[in-house]
Amino acid sequence: MATVKFDNVDIEFPIYDVHTRSIRRHLLNLRVGAAITTDAQDRVIVNALKNINFTLNDGDRVGLLGHNGSGKSTLLRAMANIYEPVRGKVKTVGRISTMFDLTIGMDPDASGLENIYLQGMIIGMTNAQIDAAMDDITDFTELGNFMLLPIRTYSSGMLMRLAFAIITSSMPEILLIDEVIGAGDRRFFSKAEERLKSMSSHASIVCVASHSERVIKSLCNKAILMKQGELVTFGEVEPVFEAYHKLIAAEPPKK
Amino acid sequence: MGISVTFIGGLWSILFNADLAAFIPHFCLGMTIWLFMNNAISEGAMSFTSASHIIRNVKYPYSAFVLWTLWRNVIVFGHLLLVYVVVAILFPPEFGIPMLYLPLGIVLVILNLSWMMFFLSVCSTRFRDIPQILTNLLNILFFLTPVIWVKGQLRDFGYIVDFNPMAHMLDAIRNPLMGLEVQPLTWLILSAMALVGWSITFLIFARFRHRIAYWL
Predict the structure, then answer these.
(1) Which of B182, B110, B111, B187 shows the shortest CA–CA distance to B151?
(2) CA distance to partner chain A, nearest, from residue B51 (Å)
(3) Predicted complex ipTM exceeds 0.85
(4) Of A118, A161, A155, A121, which Cα lies nearest the Cα of A138?
(5) What is the pLDDT of residues B131-159, one digit of tens each?
(6) Chain-chain contact of B57 with A98 (C-beta, under 8 angstroms)
(7) Rounded to two decimals, what is the model's pTM?
(8) Residue A12's closest chain B neighbor by CA?
(9) Which of A138, A193, B119, B212 lies at a CB distance of 3.0 to 4.6 Å from B201, suitable for a disulfide?
(10) In chain A, what is the straight-line distance between the N-terminal and C-terminal CA atoms, in Å?
(11) Which residues of A fall within a CB distance of 8 Å from B56?
(12) Alpha helices of chain B — where are they, by DSSP H?
């Protein structure tokens, strides 16, 4: 039984510059007095997420839509409990796996096989679990002898196959995927769709951020549209895409 | 390491007119233990910043990053200690009861190093100039710690060593290995430091750990 629940969630990023990053500066300010301290307190803050509310349940495969900087990645990281909200509450039930960056914990000079162990450990698998999942992972990647080569020789699509196979074989209850999935080819997507569907059949939530209509339509059954840190629409894929197209059309064309 | 012990140790014993048999083991262990403490602290302070890639992408217990750094340094320390084995064959220490205190010394030193690493890694994630300040501080402490000199040479200024926590940590490992007694004061200070240090670190961590991901 997996759930993700967002309750009036706000996330703000303080932007530190060189001065606010310096403890010497802080200590000096104390001595010099008020005139300069205002400088240190005057932080720039980016409201990455504003008042977000939604609930995801078992079997939801959700696509995240929105322009660059609309808060898709921040939303995913908040779901993963990496960024704890400034206000509001994020409640998640279930084991979470993330696929935000393909090479987490991977060593570019180690072979594909060795990296399966490295990344498997980072996402919380035991050696025995990795051994058990080994065949499944190598089959899915279709990398064959490339598995014995260092992963720095891989293309981004190959890396993505490897990372996707490892992450999905760890049987997460909540799977969060950022943009990276776009590197896959058509053949990969038909396999990925099958795999995600079989995963969500035994109770799990999948959340994918992508700009590609094809990716979201083939993998998801629901969608969320984000705009400037706010949740615009949440629902079935088709109506959300309509809203997304309207949003794009409504914007004044660039001169 | 072996080479630097031979040459610097030899040079120093000429300069200070010291007894080779006493000075070489003192210096070799001093250098090895100092390097261990120095690297553990200065690398430890970067535990979170150097793992920023992982922290921003996977939810992972923060303590793991500090423990990685600590474990890496313990392994390196174990390797460097082999040089002392050679030295101990050439200049055998006095085998006896004081050597039995070695495990206690190692445990207390690691307990203290780990809170320092933990505390500093939280602070230096927020304030990025702390590692540089730390490097300078450790350089100064190196000269205030009896690594390349012995406490007796301070004559009336022995209290410099008594007030130096690094010197106590050094003694807690070096003296047992050389077969020398460890002062009761050292055990007292190290235990008190571990207790107070961990309490402060715990409070700071509990207060700020939600912010660490934002600071990276």
Answers:
(1) B182
(2) 10
(3) no
(4) A161
(5) 999 999 999 999 999 988 888 777 878 78
(6) yes
(7) 0.82
(8) B214
(9) B119
(10) 50
(11) 77, 82, 100
(12) 2-15, 20-44, 47-50, 52-55, 62-90, 102-126, 130-144, 159-162, 165-178, 184-208, 212-215
